[in-house]
Amino acid sequence: MPAYFTVELFRFLARLKRHNDREWFQSHKEEYETHVRQPAIRFIADFGAPLYELTPHLVADARPTRGSLFRIYRDTRFSPDKRPYKTHLAMRFSHRGKDVHSPGFYLHIEAGGCFAACGLWHPEPPTLLKVRNAMVSRPDEWRNVRKLLNWDDASKLARPPRGFPCDHEFVEDLKLRDLGTAVDFTDQQVCSPKFMATFVAACRKMSPVAAFLSSALGLQF
After folding, report:
1. pTM of the predicted model, to two decimals?
2. Do residues 109 and 89 lie in contact, with contact meaning Cβ atoms separated by under 8 Å?
3. Which residue segment(s) compose the domain that 137 sits in?
4. 69 has which bridge partners?
5. CA dist., res. 220 & res. 214, Å (int)
6. How far apart are CA 73 and CA 83, in angstroms?
7. pLDDT string in tens for the chain (221-residue length)
8. Domain holding 43: CATH number?
9. Strand locations in 46-97, DSSP E?
């Protein structure tokens, strides 16, 4: 099979980074459709079958809007940065009916910074409490899952959260405010005809994290 993504995708995103304004984007929208949006939609549609083999409880939604593909448009309403467009390609594969913050899979594509990820980023306090309780009540499972965590920039509390002992075996994990894992890709891997298999393998590797976090939140995986 031909590759889903090509070097033209990275070239377009690099040029968008230099010319991040509506006039430039509108005059190059056909390139965006050809090299970015349409390949991403095809990738999402084709990922549906292997995703179902990993878990039937996550969704690969290939709709052009309100599906797995993130919009290219930035929400600038409350941001001092008024640049209108994101300069990366992103897609999510979440639990049905849940938003991007559910513990599904995420794919991020930009030059020199491509990766797959899975986890919870800045979850609400009730969500985080459920995960912490699961760590404590299911220690054997968590010992295996915690080995996969590799978000080096995950934020952390200075002290153990209220209600948890300072000398607990997982005290450093209980301090975490973000929990997840990621697998990096080179630009060349993303442009390879084998990238679907590469991404599926990454999701399989991250699945224990998704499964634990999902069950902690009462979600099936």
Report:
1. 0.94
2. yes
3. 7-216
4. 91
5. 6
6. 9
7. 789 999 999 999 999 999 999 999 999 999 999 999 999 999 999 999 999 999 999 999 999 899 999 999 999 998 999 999 999 999 999 998 776 568 999 999 999 999 999 999 889 999 999 999 999 999 999 999 999 999 887 899 999 999 999 999 999 999 999 999 999 999 999 999 999 999 999 999 999 999 999 999 999 99
8. 3.30.930
9. 89-93
| Long-range contacts, stretch 41-50, CB < 8 angstroms, 24+ apart | 41/69, 42/4, 43/4, 43/5, 43/91, 43/196, 44/68, 44/69, 44/91, 46/4, 46/196, 47/93, 47/196, 47/199, 47/200, 50/196, 50/200
- Whether residue 154 lies inside any domain: the answer is yes
Instruction: Report d(CA 145, CA 206) in Å as an integer.
Output: 9
The pairing of beta strand 179-185 with beta strand 105-109: unpaired
**Would 1 be classed as within a structural domain?**
no
Q: From edge to edge, which strands make up the β-sheet containing 89-93?
A: 89-93, 105-109, 114-120, 179-185
**How many independent structural domains does the chain possess?**
1
What's the token pair of residue 203?
């999701």
Residue given tokens 């995708």 in the structure block: 9
